[in-house]
């Protein structure tokens, strides 16, 4: 019982922290009621959502994803990850239309470890 009592404050802090992040996600969502055609606003909400999601699940962004996001940053309005467990994917909104070749070139230039089979 003593172990449970000692762990209880930590558990409460985790619940409170999670509640705070969920509240932040709600506020972000409400502020993302953008105007039609406001792609910069959409991109900002995508990126803000990802930052909040990382607070909820520390360690959810692998080092390779961090490097990809850093390389893409100058060329995108926003980006995020969806899915999980090796079946996830990154989505991004580029600043310029038809940027697939730019994206491919950036991805090709990023060094990956032997565990990655395809980019």
Briefly characterize the structure:
The chain is mainly alpha-helical.
What does this structure look like?
By secondary structure, the protein is mainly α. The chain has one domain (2-108): GHMP kinase, C-terminal domain (Alpha-Beta Plaits). The protein has four helices and two strands. The chain has helices spanning 2-31, 39-56, 63-72, 100-108, and strands at residues 76-82, 89-94. Helix 1 (2-31) runs antiparallel to helix 2 (39-56). The longest helix has 30 residues, at 2-31. The mean pLDDT is 77.
Radius of gyration: 18 Å
Domains, number: 1
- Largest beta-sheet details: 2 strands, antiparallel
Unreliable stretches covering 5 or more consecutive residues: none
The CATH topology comes to Alpha-Beta Plaits
CATH class: Alpha Beta
CATH architecture: 2-Layer Sandwich
- Average pLDDT rating: 77
Instruction: Please name the fourth-level CATH homologous superfamily.
Output: GHMP kinase, C-terminal domain
Main sheet: strand order: 1-2
Give the helix proportion (percent range).
55-70%
Number of strands: 2
What is the element string, with H for helices and E for strands?
A: HHHEEH
List keywords for this structure.
119 residues; mainly alpha; Alpha-Beta Plaits; two-stranded antiparallel sheet; 2 strands; 56% helix; flat
Question: What topology does this entry show?
Answer:
Elements: H1 2-31, H2 39-56, H3 63-72, E1 76-82, E2 89-94, H4 100-108
Antiparallel strand pairs: 1-2
């Amino acid at each position: 019982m003593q172990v449970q009592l000692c762990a209880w404050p930590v558990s409460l802090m985790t619940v409170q922290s999670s509640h705070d992040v969920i509240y932040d996600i709600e506020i972000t969502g409400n502020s993302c009621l953008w105007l039609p055609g406001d792609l910069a606003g959409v991109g900002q909400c995508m990126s803000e959502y990802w930052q909040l999601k990382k607070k909820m699940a520390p360690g959810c962004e692998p080092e390779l994803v961090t490097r990809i996001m850093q390389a893409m940053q100058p060329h995108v309005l926003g980006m995020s990850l969806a899915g999980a467990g090796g079946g996830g994917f990154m989505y991004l909104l580029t600043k310029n239309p038809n940027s697939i070749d730019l994206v491919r070139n950036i991805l090709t230039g990023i060094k990956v470890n032997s565990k990655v089979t395809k980019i």
